[in-house]
Amino acid sequence: MQRERIAPRPDWRAHVERDLGFRFHTIGGALYWDETACYRFTAEQIDELEAATAELEQMCLALVDRVIDNGEEAFERLRIPRVAWDAVAGSWAAREKNLYGRFDLAYDGASPPRLLEYNADTPTALFEAAVVQWDWLQATSPARDQFNSIHEKLIAAWANFDLGGERLYFSAVKAHVEDNGTTEYLRDTAVQAGLLTDRIAIEDIGWDGRQFVDLDNNPIRALFKLYPWEWLAQEEFGVHLLSGVAKVIEPAWKMVLSNKAALALLWEMAPNHPNLLAASLEPGAIAGKQVRKPIYSREGANVQLLDGGQVVAETSGAYGAEGFVYQAHSEIPAFDGNHAVVGSWVIASQPAGIGIREDVNAITSDSSRFVPHYFE
Question: Are 85 and 72 in contact (CB under 8 A)?
C-alpha cells in the first residue's frame, strides 16, 4: 500500500460536475475530492481487505442474532430506545433485507485490517467510491484495476426488496448537499434496476393519521431514508415509522449495528479476533492508549484520544448523552503526513469495494479528503 503523488486532470472540476453530477467535490472552499494523490495496492492486499470485510459482516449479522436472543439487556446496553425494541426484533424475525454499509478500517498493507467502526445505517461517501473514482481510473489508467463493483452490486441488490409494485421514495434532509447527492445516486441505481421511484425531503413527509403521504397526499408505502434511526426513534414522525405502515430501507434491525456500543459487544463475542480492536463500555477496562467515542455520533464528532487517562486529542460536537464506548487505540497509518482510513463497502452483505479518506489529523471528520485508489 503506497501513496503516490500525481497530477490532477486539468478539467476535472468541470468534468465531474457536467458529466457525473458530482456537486460536492469542494466543501467550504477546501477540496473534498482530491486527485493530487492516489493509493496503490497489490492484488494480495485487496484480497485481504475483501476477506476481512466479508468476515466482519458475518460477525455483525451474528451479533444481531445474539442481541435479539438476549433481548432487553442487550437493547439497553446498545442504548436502543425502548420504543424501537419491537420494531428491531420484528424486522429481524421477518428477515427484512439490507442494502449497504461501510466498514472503516485501519490498514497499512502489512498488518491485518482493524475495524474502527461500522457505518451500518446511513453511510455516505458512496457516490465518490462507486462512480467518481472509477471515472478517474478509466480516464487516467484504464489498464489498471480497482476494488470497485459497488455500482453493479447496488443495481443487482434492489431485486432483493419485495416492494409489491409500490413507488420507492428516497429521502434526506432538504439542505444537506452530500446526503441529497447520495440519495439521488441510490435512486438512479434503483431506476436502473427497474423500480418506480420518487424523491421527497424528510421535512416534507406528511402523516394523515393512518399513513405517510407526500406533498400531493399520495401514500408513501416504501421509503429509503438517509436519516438515522436513532433520531427517528426520538421523533413523533419516527414512532409512526416504527409501526410498520411503510417498508423502510435500511431495516430497523440495523439499529443494533449503527451505534458504537456494538464495537464492545463484538469484542465480547469474538475477543482477540485479528480484525477487531479491544472495546468496552466501561471506562478503565481498556489498557494503554485508547479512544473514547460517543455511542451515537457522526463524522468523528466528540471523539477523545486518551493516554494514561489524559486527553491528548479531541474533536468537538454535541454528542455523548447516551454514553461512550472505549476502544483500544490503533495508529491510523500516515502516508506523507496524511492519515488514511479505508472505507470498505458491503452491498447486500457482500464485499463490493473501497474508498479512502485521508486527513492530516488522526481523527477522520466530514472535511477529510476522498482520494482514489488502484491495484496492480
Answer: yes
